[in-house]
Automatic annotation (TrEMBL):
Belongs to the ParD antitoxin family. Gene3D superfamilies: Antitoxin ParD1-like. Pfam families: ParD_antitoxin. This is Antitoxin ParD1/3/4. GO terms for biological process: regulation of DNA-templated transcription. Keywords: Toxin-antitoxin system.
Amino acid sequence: MSRLTISMPDQMNDWVEAQVSAGRYGNVSEYFRDLVRRDQERREAAFDDLRNMLERAEAGGVSTRGLSDIMAAAREEARQKGLLRGED
C-alpha cells in the first residue's frame, strides 16, 4: 500500500478529525479513501451519462432543422427550465 502526505488548512483538518471523532470513519486514512472512492464513482457516472447521451444522439439521426431553429428551441427549453430570462 502506498503512503501519501498532504497539507491542508487547520479548518479542513478540524473537519476531518471531527468526522473521525464522530465515529463516521475509523481513522483519517479511511476518510480520504472514502473521498477518493466517491470521486471515482462520480466521474465514472459522469462518463456513463455522457456516453449514453452520445449514443442517444447518434441513434436520433440527422436533423432536418436549421441551426437557427435548433438554437431557438434550445433557448425556449432553457427559459422553461428557468435557466434563461428575457431575451438571452
